Amino acid sequence: MASPLEKARQDPNSMKARILAAARMIFGQYGYNDTTTRMIAKEVGIDISTLYYHWGEKQDLYEAVLADVGDEIQQELNEIERHVSGQSMVRRLETALDMMCDYLFSHPEVPNLILFGYFNKTQHGVTLDIKMTEHIANIAVAMDLAKNKKKVTIQAKARILAVWNTVLNFISGESFFRPMLETDREHYIQVVKETLKFILVPAFTAEK
User: Fold this and answer.
1) N or C: which end of the chain has fewer CB within 10 A?
2) What is the pTM of this model?
3) Dihedral sign, CA of 90, 92, 97, 98?
4) Measuring CA to CA, which residue among 22, 18, 17 is closest to residue 2?
5) Residue-wise pLDDT tens digits, 72-126
């Protein structure tokens, strides 16, 4: 029997999918603790009983949001790996940074959800943490920092985290950083990409 998440994915126009999309946005904006099911129901324009009918309790919906985000990140990483396979380290990094920034800037709730999981630690962040461990291993292999996803060194993991956290903070912190740079959003995205490449490409290629 299909899970509520699978049903939502099968029919993007369904009530389940509409609730999931609203929950993803609101959890990404306020975090788990400060989000209520009433806030989500109001965003969709339904009563609270309809939300419970389709998704159950708040934790069930939150877990579905995290699973959805985790799977989406993995799909994006798979797509990046297809684009960078066989290329030089410089090209791999530049392409990966461009593609990941484009994805995350288009889905700002994703870095917010991840950072909420880091800094507002509760039992509800476990699902995403497990996924992130898998993502780090996949990135390490794609960037030629490891030959095997099950044998990634601590040093490689730390380097991937440095990249990942830098990207997340630039995107989640856009409303804070962009006024400091006195620029519009399009230029901000361009500058972020250029800055990440300026810092990270030499750092990752110095030993090659």
Assistant:
1) N
2) 0.85
3) positive
4) 17
5) 988 988 888 888 878 888 888 899 899 999 999 999 999 999 888 776 655 555 5
pLDDT digits (tens, 9 = 90+) for 141-182: 777 788 888 888 898 888 888 888 889 999 999 999 999 999
Place of tokens 């110095």: 206
Q: Which of 17, 138, 142, 6 is nearest to 74 (CA)?
A: 138
Max CA-CA distance within the chain? Answer: 58
CA-angle at 97, arms to 96 and 100, nearest 5°: 80
Which residue is associated with the tokens 């099968």? Answer: 10
The answer to whether 94 touches 73, Cβ cutoff 8 Å, is no
| CATH architecture classification, 4-205 | Orthogonal Bundle (1.10)
Q: In 10 A of CB 108, how many CB atoms?
A: 16
Are 17 and 8 in contact, with CB atoms under 8 Å apart?
yes
Chain Cα centroid distance, residue 15: 24
38 with 48: CB under 8 angstroms?
Answer: yes
- Taking each helix axis from N to C end, the angle separating 58-84 and 15-30, rounded to the nearest 10 degrees, works out to 90
The DSSP annotation for 1-67 comes to: ---HHHHHHH-TTSHHHHHHHHHHHHHHHHTTTT--HHHHHHHHT--HHHHHHHH-SHHHHHHHHHH
Alpha carbons 114 and 135: distance in angstroms, whole number = 12
